[in-house]
Amino acid sequence: MIPCNASPTTPQDPSCFDVSIGSQEVGGMKIKFFADIVPKMAKNFRQFCTGEFRKGLVPTGYKGSTFHRVIMDFTIQHGNSVNGGGTRVASVGGGAFAGENFKLRHSAPDLLRGPSTNGSQIFTTCSKCHWLDGKHVQFGKTHRPLVMREIEKISRGPNNKPKGLLVQGGEV
């Protein structure tokens, strides 16, 4: 296992999830944000990673959350810190917000993007996904592709929900 590195080079770069499948630690999902191109999206995601976003006095973030959908060769969906199932939207500014721009293309695997209603839920591409260009805002890239491939291979239940996949941390 390669753990996350807790020493960022800049405040927005990098972030990391430590991922486990059941009790087996898989490794760190290291993320670089494109904060110079989509600063609002990058800030929103980073604050959910660190837990510095608070709902009332309670830190709200990805730590202890699950990945709620994995589709081989397409996407890994995660990051819904509200109810864990991908059906509620929350952001550090309250509810959903519009995407900043669509400058970045989905031209490679391991890219992070937000749905059309941006909040805490994110998707990571597992392959090139050009059909998403102009529809979803790309805001980062993972730099540990082997961790992503392990997540893709996990056993899944109904609706492609992975079994036993958990985010152990979300530290910058």
Automatic annotation (TrEMBL):
Its EC number is 5.2.1.8. The keyword Transferase does not apply. GO terms for molecular function: cyclosporin A binding; peptidyl-prolyl cis-trans isomerase activity. InterPro entries: Cyclophilin-like_dom_sf, Cyclophilin-type_PPIase, Cyclophilin-type_PPIase_dom. It holds the Pfam family Pro_isomerase. Keywords: Isomerase, Rotamase. PPIases accelerate the folding of proteins. It catalyzes the cis-trans isomerization of proline imidic peptide bonds in oligopeptides. This is Peptidyl-prolyl cis-trans isomerase. It comes from Mustela putorius furo.
